[in-house]
Amino acid sequence: MLALSIIVAVAVVHAAGPPTITADQARANVGKRVTVCGEIVSVGRALSKRQGGKQVFLHFDKEPPGSPFVAIVIGYDLETYWHLDRAVHRKACATGYIKIREDLVYTVIDALNQMTFTEDAPTPH
Length: 125
Hints:
Layout: H1 2-16, E1 20-22, E2 33-47, E3 54-60, E4 69-74, H2 76-81, E5 91-97, E6 99-101, E7 104-109, E8 115-119
Parallel strand pairs: 1-2, 4-7
Antiparallel strand pairs: 2-3, 2-5, 3-4, 5-8, 6-7
């Protein structure tokens, strides 16, 4: 009976997924797997010889250089699938391990299950 209870407890914890935090809380969670939610306020692009070539930088909650968190999307397929050319002002959540490099707090997104959009961009009036 104890073994069954442990298995059920592990399954519930695993099913719950990583904790959800705000973009401002990302820096305090470097090294942890979390889901960061916020508003995408800026989209940048770069080419890299590593990490799959094309990279899209989704800046959460504040314009760069003051962005508290950046989701770096790797690969043209994901950029096209999510219509990242229209990502500004959309609410989104990015799941992954939080990293920091030269004061940039980020996670790398390279799979569909790592990113969700909770709200479409506002329609123009």
